[in-house]
Write a structure and sequence with these properties.
Helix 8 crosses helix 9 and helix 14 packs antiparallel against helix 16. Helices cover 27% and strands 30% of the residues. The chain starts with a strand and ends in a 6-residue tail after the last helix. Strands 1, 2, 3, 4, 25, 26, 27, 28 and 29 form a 9-stranded mixed beta sheet that branches. Strands 15-14-20-11-12-19-16-17 form an 8-stranded antiparallel beta sheet. It has 16 helices and 31 strands. It folds into 6 domains: 178 residues, 3-Layer(aba) Sandwich (Rossmann fold); 85 residues, Translation factors (Elongation Factor Tu (Ef-tu), domain 3); 71 residues, Elongation Factor G (Translational Gtpase), domain 3 (Alpha-Beta Plaits), CATH 3.30.70; 37 residues, no CATH class; 65 residues, 2-Layer Sandwich (Alpha-Beta Plaits), CATH 3.30.70; 88 residues, no CATH class. Bound molecules: guanosine-5'-triphosphate. Keywords: GTP-binding, Hydrolase, Membrane, Mitochondrion, Mitochondrion inner membrane, Nucleotide-binding, Protein biosynthesis.
Length: 635
Amino acid sequence: MLTFVGRGWGCARALAPRATGASLLVVPGSRPALTFGAARESWATDRLYSAADLKEKLDMSRFPVENIRNFSIIAHVDHGKSTLADRLLELTGTIDKTKNNKQVLDKLQVERERGITVKAQTASLFHNYEGKQYLLNLIDTPGHVDFSYEVSRSLAACQGVLLVVDANEGIQAQTVANFFLAFEAQLSVIPVINKIDLKNADPERVENQIEKVFDIPSDECIKISAKLGTNVESVLQAVIERIPPPKVHRKNPLRALVFDSTFDHYRGVVANVALFDGVVSKGDKIVSAHTQKTYEVNEVGVLNPNEQPTHKLYAGQVGYLIAGMKDVTEAQIGDTLHLHKQPVEPLPGFKSAKPMVFAGIYPVDQSEYNNLKSAIEKLTLNDSSVTIHRDSSLALGAGWRLGFLGLLHMEVFNQRLEQEYNASVILTTPTVPYKAVLSSSKLIKEYREKEITIINPAQFPDKSKVTEYLEPVVLGTIITPDEYTGKIMMLCQARRAVQKNMMFIDQNRVMLKYLFPLNEIVVDFYDSLKSLSSGYARDKAHSIGKAMCERLKDCLPRQLFEIAIQASIGSKIIARETVKAYRKNVLAKCYGGDITRKMKLLKRQAEGKKKLRKIGNIEVPKDTFIKVLKTQSSK
Ligand SMILES: Nc1nc2c(ncn2[C@@H]2O[C@H](COP(=O)(O)OP(=O)(O)OP(=O)(O)O)[C@@H](O)[C@H]2O)c(=O)[nH]1
């Protein structure tokens, strides 16, 4: 199985590419069939709180900061983060213990349908341990690399993480990437080996991998089954014992980090905040350090896991804040909020997420343009990592070119447009951005810079006016059973990848590091890796050109004259197909008769066709473009 495990972008300059600190992860083959135990084991649970109890609990005015723990759950996709979060919510009495608690924190429809977490979610849990009450702020994060931006943001609000690893699959690419995010943020890491109930589970092997790759002593690993609830209690103990409380000061002026935000049509922006200093309450005047705009706080509260308004939020707490911000850009992720007239040193922010995959998006019917525009605007209010540029195409009309963090991000956005806004769209084949270093002084003057970024293939400047083209590269990590290594290396080579490292993480698992041109892996690398067939063509321009021409040939209506369909790179034709002409039988009326007369008629017909071919314009039906351009993901 393959996942990207984080990336940025740098450019490959001729044959000397620069790494970007990004990585891509791939693990072929061995996804186990999941086997579940017949019955769920029972485990101790706190009682659910009554409304009065909850109100008392949520009054944090006298709650000691030493009893607060802020932590996140990180893992490779499907290793069981959300299931563990469900068990922790049940065990602490935050939600009722029923069989229906499946991925309680995955609130979006797309998350539930795909079984993946897209948006990080927060929950404040209370737990009694050795006679003391603790407040545990849990942030469930997405596993897929397209959303790793969400992970790094969430980590800024935490002092520790639970690193969940599947007891059968062992360490995977995203496990490595997420571990390093936590390690670099200097957080305490608690390794949790999950799914020990599986028939093929081998927790000892995974323990050794963790020791070898992350240098964490194997006896620090906690072995659990989140599905059955086995040993989940010790996870809570470890959170309390091994993760330090936040280093914060209630008496200092307010300093709150905005680590996430969502948009609510009625209340405006709901900002998720972690308080590093001070107190904030309803009615306070706050200022965004980023925009310097002042707002009045309308509501503060905690997520339990649903919004639970409180009187105040105190330093050390993680919660939400509503202050009449109309647009998520006003609550910039990474921004620091402080009280009016009490400015503070802003907290270190985050690097903004850079879109790496661009695709055209058009309404199926142009009359739907305005509806689609409003749907896209609303959806991007909730997902500020999507970039929008207006675009138009002769074939598809007016639309936009959107930038996404990855292919899954694009698919999820498209699915949300359809499900939440009932929009029907055409999505064109995704492309990556390129840079061109211009040589033409006229162009440099026009663009006002020497190096330009191109996000739309239609806007590529002419080759003769460019010194060099640059493309984004990512550092990819592939973890694979030993037997696939040879084939994977061939595949990587065929994708123009440069090997950087290779290491055995246990007796039969290898970790490979490659520098990949992003364009080579963005669409179908995962599928190729799964099939692991050999014989990949190095130069794919010809095969792509040929396939396009063939598709056009099948879709275009025939005319009275022959139509040549050509694919070209600049002036060089790389593929060609011909749509045969309809042929009128000009000899139909000649019953017998003179051969020269027949020849004359045929010659005149040929000349007519030649002339038509020169001047003939054909009307290309719109659905032809749709058929040719429509990508798999938009179906
Ligand atoms: N047998 C078994 N299955 C488990 C266990 N924990 C989780 N699962 C299953 O593994 C699958 C993935 O679990 P999730 O909790 O959605 O995984 P996740 O890590 O949150 O996934 P993403 O949010 O997409 O990254 C689900 O089908 C769970 O039911 C476990 O302890 N044992």
